[in-house]
Amino acid sequence: MGKKRKREEEKHPRNRYSDNPPDFSELASLYPSFGSYVFYSRDGKPKIDWKDFNATRELTRVLLLHHHSVTWWIPDGQLCPTVPNRSNYIHWIEDLLSSNIIPNTRQDNSLVKGLDIGTGANCIYPLLGASLLGWSFVGTDVTDVALEWADWNVKNNPHISELIEIRKVDFEQELTHQHTNSIESSTDITGNTEHPKQASFGNSNKSYNGPPILLDVVKEGEKFDFCMCNPPFFETMEESGLNPNTSCGGTPAEMVCPGGEQAFVSRMIQDSIQLKQSFRWYTSMVGKKSSLKSLTSKLREAGVTVVKTTEFVQGQTCRWGIAWSFVPPIKKIISSHVASKNVLTFMLEGIQRKFSAFHVLNSIESFFQASGASSNKNAALFFIDIHATMSDCKEILKNNSGNLKEIEWGEGLNVLHFRVTVFEQIPGTLLVRGSLKPGETSVPGLLSSIFLQVEDALRKEFCPKKVN
What's the rounded Cα separation, in Å, for the pair 336 and 186? Predict the structure, then answer.
């Protein structure tokens, strides 16, 4: 089986915010414009209203200025990025480039060069990559507002402006969503007939029909070390606006495309088949863990040599990253999307707006208390520590005799200690994670069996449509 893969960090260790979240009090004292948005809770902790777009935009502005010496602004309504989460993505790409998984196919010693697909008015990835690591970037977009403000953000940072090119994607033809039922052939957005295998890469019922992503954007003979993308996660603006607790803005061009993120990234895969080694690494962020399995399957079908995935966790937000390459690997790869047996996750999708992560956390607490297990809940950080004796565990599994019989209980383990954490994903979707505490051991299969019971109970309570 080879060496066991070391689990990748969720909060990247080189991310300055990994263990040091932004100090709102300090920032408020240094930047009065930000201080007007800061208030204090009863326990004296500084906070901002995450539903206030102006507050989140000002936080991003002062973080980029204070920690990265970057001058930045976006107009109302444009997508406002979170600096800590975006930094995780940059550092993950840095890891991919510095690893010896695939060789460096570029013979010169020139700067690392990346392409940011849909850079947006915020132009966050080129600004972070250039200021943190000295990388050069091409940032692409299609709307006039995005191009104008991305260019403004570049030109107002003369110390890195020469590293960043903003490139307009020509897209004059208005295309509407079409259902792709034929596997024989179809016509792509450039007017070329696609190979049947490529034509099947859209969502099962939907294919991407929008501006060019990589083909007709990358110039002939152009080489990049990587591309990166924060794709449209949603199929409709209604879907994108379900979370009443945050307001990060976002235009339809930034948030929505027919088929959502799966259709968009599927078109990236299709383009990469033709561009091959024009990029050392193709990468994208995705908003749903469930998208990874489908996209990984398509990548294997496409004949890529390497697929890597990771999880980005910052605060109570989770996203995933997927990367692939056509460069032959130097060493055998152990699939990175295989989860550790000591860490288990599942997603609750389609949750009604009246329910939040706090309601799910309370239900988890009640679930374990009903079996006699003790718990210690941290409502502020949305986790609960569970201490369950073996008799408690057997009580939890009593209604699942199959799992109960298969577990070899042994004599050495008396108490199971683990943590359950609830993370908000996209609106209407929560991620629930169970993990053994560092240094803890468990009877093989016990934690996963218990977690299946938790998942079943939560789905019945919060996702009745999914259960039916």
Answer: 34
Q: Which amino acid is at 208?
A: Y
Here the tokens at position 343 are: 């860490």
Distance CA 262, CA 294 (A): 8
- What are the C-alpha distances in Å from 347 to residues 287, 288, 307, 314, 458? 12, 9, 22, 17, 10
Given the DSSP bridges, would you call strands 113-117 and 224-229 parallel, antiparallel or unpaired?
Answer: parallel
Distance CA 180, CA 200 (A): 8
312-350: per-residue pLDDT in tens? 875 566 788 999 999 988 754 444 333 345 677 777 877
Separation of alpha carbons 465 and 468, rounded Å? 5
How far, in Å, CA of 429 to CA of 73, rounded?
Answer: 30
Considering only CA atoms, which of 252, 255, 309 is closest in space to residue 285? Answer: 309
User: What gap in Å lies between CA 296 and CA 309, rounded to an integer?
Assistant: 9
**DSSP state letter for 187:** B
164 bridge partner residues: 137
Please tell me the pTM assigned to this model: 0.64
Largest CA distance in the chain: 70
The tokens for 136 are 């050069």
Considering only CA atoms, which of 342, 192, 380 is closest in space to residue 270? 192
Residue 183 CA: distances (Å) to CA of 119, 201, 302: 33, 10, 16
DSSP character for 250? -
Distance CA 353, CA 81 (A): 23
DSSP 349-401: ES--TT--HHHHHHHHHHHHHHTT-EEEEETTTTEEEEEEEHHHHHHHTTT-H
352-403 pLDDT per residue, tens? 778 888 899 999 999 999 999 999 998 888 889 999 888 888 888 886 654 4
CA atoms of 125 and 229, how far apart (whole Å): 9
Judge whether 282 and 224 are in contact, CB under 8 Å. no
Angle at 38 between CA 34 and CA 44, to 5 degrees: 145
Quickly list DSSP for 222-291: --EEEEEE----BSSHHHHT--TT------HHHHB-TTHHHHHHHHHHHHHHHHGGGEEEEEEEES-HHH
- How many Cα atoms are found within 13 Å in the side-chain-facing hemisphere of 24? 18
- Three-state secondary structure call for residue 172: coil
> Which of 153-173 are b and which e, b meaning 16 or more Cβ less than 10 Å from the residue's Cβ?
bbeebeebeebbbbbebeeee
